[in-house]
């Protein structure tokens, strides 16, 4: 996708930064990648769910998500796969920052 990709213009954007306890990095990574794959595959309103990790700091994860709307994101937060992920990883998280934005055309 490029910046000028009109198919994703004005979409509801969520960016999340996680710091994970070092002992749980691999388990969190696997759970997060699974959550992202299920979100794109099973949620009609979720179009992009990128999971990134800082190569210099493996405890730092960054998510970039594109949804049709805030309502589609609310549906994501109630999806069984997300609820399972959240419960399974909650104890692994040192800190979490969520920002909700609007992607510009």
- Beta-strand segment tally: 4
- C-alpha geometry: globular
Mean pLDDT: 92
Identify low-pLDDT runs. Answer: none
> What is the CATH C-level name?
Alpha Beta
Write the element-wise H/E pattern from the N-terminal end onward. EHEEHHE
Second-tier CATH architecture: 2-Layer Sandwich
What's the tally of helices? Answer: 3
Question: What is the rounded Rg?
Answer: 14 Å
- Proportion of residues in helical segments: 25-40%
Q: Would you kindly provide a written description of the structure presented here, covering whatever features stand out?
A:
- The protein is of the alpha+beta class and 105 residues long.
- The protein has a single domain (15-102), classed as Alpha-Beta Plaits.
- 35% of the residues lie in helices and 37% in strands.
- It has a four-stranded antiparallel β-sheet with strand order 2-3-1-4.
- Helix 1 (25-42) packs antiparallel against helix 3 (80-89).
- It starts with 11 loop residues before the first strand and ends with a strand.
- The mean pLDDT is 92.
């Amino acid at each position: 996708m490029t910046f000028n990709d009109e198919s994703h213009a004005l979409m509801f954007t969520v960016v999340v930064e996680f710091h994970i306890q070092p002992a749980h990095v691999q388990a969190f990574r696997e759970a997060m990648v699974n959550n992202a794959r299920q979100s794109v595959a099973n949620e009609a309103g979720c179009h992009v769910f990128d999971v990134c990790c800082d190569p210099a700091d493996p405890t730092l994860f960054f998510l970039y998500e594109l949804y049709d709307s805030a309502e589609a994101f609310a549906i994501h937060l109630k999806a069984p796969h997300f609820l399972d992920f959240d419960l399974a990883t909650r104890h692994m998280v040192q800190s979490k920052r969520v920002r909700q934005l609007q992607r510009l055309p």
